[in-house]
């Protein structure tokens, strides 16, 4: 395994992009991947993305942080209120678990089809991954820290925003011509794939 770490931005239900990026990282020696959250919604394959990520994480090759979309899903199931989740694109996630024909009792259908492994996996996800020289989480960490800050959440365009003290990696994956980005630590190079999983830059 590589000594590098790869921080990965929002995936939002794009399985092809996830698989393409994992192939790129494997070709670099398989750095440990810190996924920064928002694995679901927007794209059509949230269930498949979650299954693949949980398998990847279970092998010890990755750490999965919780994003606001995962937090919203858990809140919807805990409160039995899908309103806020649906407003942020949750219908695509529900359809990916339930199938094309969603019956009127959406909540119970979703509960019945949502695997306990996925639910447990989401509940176990930490919000922060921190080492001596960096701190990573879905939303931008406080600028008061002296550590290098890595986040996703805020779409910054097709290219990541990398500065001397921080990096923002949400490059729109899951919608239109968005890309999936991984920042390599400590060199601060990055790799990207397009919506089909084809490498864009390395």
Give your account of this protein's structure.
With 202 residues, this protein is an alpha/beta fold. It has seven helices and eleven strands. The strands form two sheets. Strands 3-2-1-9-10-11 form a six-stranded mixed beta sheet. Strands 4-5-6-8-7 form a five-stranded mixed beta sheet, with no helix packed on it. It is globular, with a radius of gyration of 16 Å. The two termini are 19 Å apart.
Summarize the helices and strands and which ones pair or pack.
Blueprint: E1 5-8, H1 15-27, E2 32-35, H2 46-58, E3 62-64, H3 68-79, H4 83-87, H5 90-98, H6 106-113, H7 116-124, E4 128-130, E5 134-137, E6 148-151, E7 161-162, E8 166-168, E9 180-185, E10 190-193, E11 199-201
Parallel strand pairs: 1-2, 2-3, 5-6, 6-8
Antiparallel strand pairs: 1-9, 4-5, 7-8, 9-10, 10-11
């Amino acid at each position: 395994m590589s000594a590098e770490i790869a921080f990965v931005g929002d995936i939002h239900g794009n399985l092809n992009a996830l698989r393409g990026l994992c192939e790129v990282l494997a070709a670099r020696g398989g750095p440990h991947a810190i996924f920064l959250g928002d694995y679901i919604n927007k794209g059509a394959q949230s269930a498949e993305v979650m299954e693949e990520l949980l398998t990847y994480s279970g092998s010890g090759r990755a750490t999965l942080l919780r994003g606001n979309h995962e937090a919203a899903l858990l809140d919807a199931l805990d409160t039995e209120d899908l309103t806020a989740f649906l407003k942020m694109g949750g219908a695509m996630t529900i359809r990916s678990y339930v199938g094309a024909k969603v019956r009127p009792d959406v909540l119970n259908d979703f509960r019945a089809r949502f695997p306990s492994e996925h639910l447990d996996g989401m509940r176990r996800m930490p919000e922060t991954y921190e080492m001596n020289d960096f701190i990573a989480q879905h939303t931008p960490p406080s600028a008061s820290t002296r550590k290098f800050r890595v986040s996703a959440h805020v779409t910054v365009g097709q290219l990541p925003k990398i500065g001397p003290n921080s990096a923002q990696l949400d490059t729109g994956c899951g919608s239109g011509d968005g890309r999936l980005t991984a920042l390599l630590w400590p060199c601060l190079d990055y790799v990207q794939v397009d919506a089909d999983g084809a490498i864009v830059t390395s």
